[in-house]
Amino acid sequence: MLRQRTVIGFIAALSLTTSLAAQAPATERRVLIRAGRLIDVATDGTKTDQGILITGDRITRVGPYADVASAAGNAERVDLSRSTVLPGLIDAHTHLFLDGTVYADQVLKQSIPFRTIQAVTAARAALTYGFTTIRDLETEGAMYADVDVKTAIDRGIIPGPRMLVATRALAPTGMYPLTGYSWELVMPAGAQLVDGADNLRKAVREQVKFGADWIKLYADRDSYVGDDGRLHSWPNWTEEELKAIVDETRRLGRLVSAHATGVEGIDAALRAGVHSIEHGDGLTPELVDRMMRQRVYWCPTIYVGARPLTGRPPLRATMAEFKRKAFGEAVKRGMGDLIAFGTDAGGFAWTENPAQEFAYYVRYGMTPPQALRTATTNAARLLGRDKDLGTIAAGKLADLVAVDGDPLTDAAVLTKVTWVMKGGIIHR
Ligand SMILES: [Zn+2]
User: Fold this and answer.
1) Cα(347) to centroid of ligand 1, in Å?
2) Which residues are near ligand 1, the ion (C-beta closer than 5 Å)?
3) Residue 94 Cα, ligand 1 centroid: separation in angstroms?
4) Which of 75, 130, 212, 234 has a beta carbon 3.0–4.6 Å from 167's, enabling a disulfide?
5) Is the pLDDT reported for residue 340 higher than 50?
6) Backbone angles phi, psi at 37, to 5 degrees
7) From the CA of 22, how far away is ligand 1's center (Å)?
């Protein structure tokens, strides 16, 4: 019964989305790509006139075009001989359910069905920009609708990146918007508000039950510049609460992402054993060294705070300046391989290409190849998917993008992806 319904649903979806239907399912379809230039992100090398053979959703062979072509038989041909081919990009910090407008308006005036429709268009935009995988770090009040978007993408009903989702995120009472309203009103919150270690364990179990791949927690709030010149913050949790979240998440085979901007928040998150720090504006050399010792990843989300915008509150500009210094220092100290590309897309409109983040990484101290690795090999490792994603090699998923120009010398070309394949299916 269930199975039959799934099959009927799939057929209906195929007849509606003709562009996808023409190519799905991708089980044993074979495609031979001729790449004018192929980037090996692991070695920063570029090889010319390469062949990539794809069977179903995986890469089965990579090498000089003539060699691969001779073994490709009657595979479909894709000519990218005038382009540079590189692995599909990964954005490890997105919000499909935000549209870059006023936060309270989204939470108060938009229904979850409406926000989900917007999320579907955001997912398509992300894929079109070349992001074949995203870690979507909470729905900001749209409950578990990210799991539904992910399912629809996985079933080929709508186009979008492969998704790892965080569902609702965790914050304690009073420490996440919407706040500041009359006590007579029961306001909705953008995260799941939970207090106490036992309740947090239950909340983690609940989020995992409904499909969370990651658990996201808000480690701090209200950053301020202290007399010592460092960026401080107010930690949100007791040590016992934080440890309970991390312990329960680990026990269920998931990973923890911690929003943390100031010294106190980052310190608390690291002591609890989280797997990634989001934003990290107030990172000091000492905290960077601790992250390297603990192998904790950093998603810097620079573009959202640094992009040109009038009327930005002064603290935002100050935090962006802290982040610029922290980024340069982290790269200098050798943290580059633990920096994973993350943009906070949705914090700005999805009509802006999140790949503009790359140029900031280069401006703040990375080489272009290093910047490219943040969105390929580094992000794949952070997500625990490096066996499948992050490089172009036999056995990996066929997630590929093409650009004109050379991203190893000019990171800005990554904002102009011209061709996108995800899991062997061409989407652009
Ligand atoms: Zn975010």
Assistant:
1) 7
2) 344
3) 6
4) 212
5) yes
6) -135, 140
7) 35
Q: How far is the CA of 63 from the centre of ligand 1 (A)?
A: 39
Strand order from edge to edge, sheet including 192-193? 192-193, 170-171, 214-218, 255-260, 276-279, 297-299
pLDDT in tens, 246-260: 999 999 999 999 999
Q: How far is the CA of 408 from the centre of ligand 1 (A)?
A: 28
* Residue range 3-53, pLDDT digits in tens: 444 433 433 443 444 444 445 454 589 999 999 999 999 888 899 999 999
Ligand 1 centroid–CA 359 distance in Å is 20
Using 50, 70 and 90 to split pLDDT, how confident is the model at 310? low
Q: How many residues does the chain have?
A: 428
How far apart are alpha carbons 173 and 144 in whole angstroms?
20
How many A from CA of 98 to the centre of ligand 1?
A: 9
Query: From the CA of 12, how far away is ligand 1's center (Å)?
Result: 35
Residue 245: count of CB within 10 angstroms of its CB: 26
354 C-alpha to ligand 1 centroid (Å)? 13
Q: How many angstroms does the Cα of residue 41 sit away from the middle of ligand 1?
A: 27
Whether 69 shows a pLDDT value over 60: the answer reads yes
| Cα of 278 from ligand 1 centre, angstroms | 7
Cα 97 to ligand 1 centroid, rounded to whole Å: 11
Q: What is the mean pLDDT of residues 121-137?
A: 98
Report residue 314's pLDDT band, with 50, 70 and 90 as the boundaries: confident
